[in-house]
Amino acid sequence: MNIYPKRWQALAYLTAGAFLSPLDYFIINMALSSIQKAFNASDYQLQMVVAIYGLTYAALVVFGGRLGDLYGRKKIFTLGLYLFLFSSLACAFSPNITFLIISRMFQGVGASFLAPQVLASIRVLFNSGEQPKAVSIFSSVFGLASVAGQLLGGFLLNLHWASFSWETVFLVNVPVTLLCIIGIHFTMDNNREEKRQKTDVTGALLLIISLLIFICPIIFGRKYHWAWWIFAILLTGILLLILFYNYEIQSMRKNKPVLIDPTLLQNQPFVLCLLIIFFYNFTSGLFICYPYYLQQFLNRNPVDTGLAIIPYGLAFFIGPLLISRIKRSSHMMIYMGLGLLISGFSMASVFIYLQVKPSIGMDISLFLAGLGHGIIMPVMMREAIGLISREKAGQASGLISISIQIGSVTGGTIIGTVFFSTIEFLGFPKAFALAVLMVAIVQIVGVFINKKLLKHSKLY
Fold first, then answer.
1. What is the rounded CA–CA span in Å between residue 172 and residue 153?
2. Torsion sign over Cα 361, 362, 366, 369
3. CATH for 1-198, among 2.40.110.10, 3.40.50.720, 3.10.180.10, 1.20.1250.20?
4. Distances (CA, A) of 316 to 53, 98, 126, 146, 206
5. How far apart are alpha carbons 310 and 297 in whole angstroms?
6. Whole-number Å distance between alpha carbons of 429 and 236
7. Residue ranges in the chain modelled with pLDDT below 70
8. Rounded distance between C-alpha atoms, residue 376 and residue 275, angstroms
9. Domain residue ranges in the chain
10. Which InterPro entries does the protein's record reference (predicted)?
């Protein structure tokens, strides 16, 4: 008998809280036009509204996972909910664009405390037979968030409730966080490491600074026409990441506390899993290019734009719920997910190239791609977290979250840059078709990595 009788109830609140993190990544895109009008904001300031959330999230998520290991996942998850609650209220009632950007930064801090506690808690609360189902439920929220973010954003902006406009995309977080704070209090124990250690503050600062320096030039490179100093900053970020890794090794040798156990990054199968996760999150490029294409080229309104992404998001939601019924090995499921992503995005590229306007063929293509995304995500999470011992689950889930975030930021920037840079001489349809095709091509890298992962698993 499992010693955590309320584990499924706890998972519901954990999942609902973690749902807020991707939701606020998608929903803000629908409100940017209204925010720009409200504050007379520049394009750069709007970019910061989006970017600062993802930057803070990616930089702090491992630290958030480590805090959960040390001080208890229930405590840190609840702290994340409170941070998310008050920062969402601050966003909604921002008097100016600068205040909104700062509030979004604190939202990112809250989000970084939420997601890693879920995977780590699944590793602890559920036995090995229950973990696949639990991970699938958690993974499905990302697909649901992609749909809800687009649809809910468009609906709320058209609602004009109590004279609010863009503010509603932040106020919608309030009831969810309050429900989760109450629910998690009564359903979850404060599981943590048996032997509490001190926090590696120096390592945390090194990791945060190196990730910020690495991600910032990727995001803002196009704005400054990829000047030489952009690449210099990017290289500095990589060098700082190497410095961080060496610092952690030296700390471990001296029996000092570490933020990330260096042996995690010496675990080749785990690192290969992280790489596959990184590359399949290049799919974020679709959510940047498709709304822009629909609104700027086809003059669609926010609600219609949100409806257009439903086939992808619906399949993304269904995929994780289906995989527990498919009796295949993890490696075959990874091949299946990548195959659907490659075929779905390739078909979508062809349909846009030939027909310009979205068609039933485009919807089917996006459904296939979304299904591939929904299949591969929980399999990769389960495969990666299953390679790591229970006491290091928080650190491992933090690294998985970093792979997701950096993959999304890098993929969105590269795919977006290709799209925006080729519109002028290719035209909207061909530029969009090329961008979508690039998403498919990148997934081929994942196929070769999975092949290597399969070979490695046969050795042990």
1. 10
2. positive
3. 1.20.1250.20
4. 23, 35, 24, 8, 35
5. 20
6. 37
7. 1-3, 43-44, 142-143, 146-147, 160-162, 190-198, 324, 394, 457-460
8. 13
9. 1-198, 200-258, 264-455
10. MFS (IPR011701), MFS_dom (IPR020846), MFS_trans_sf (IPR036259)
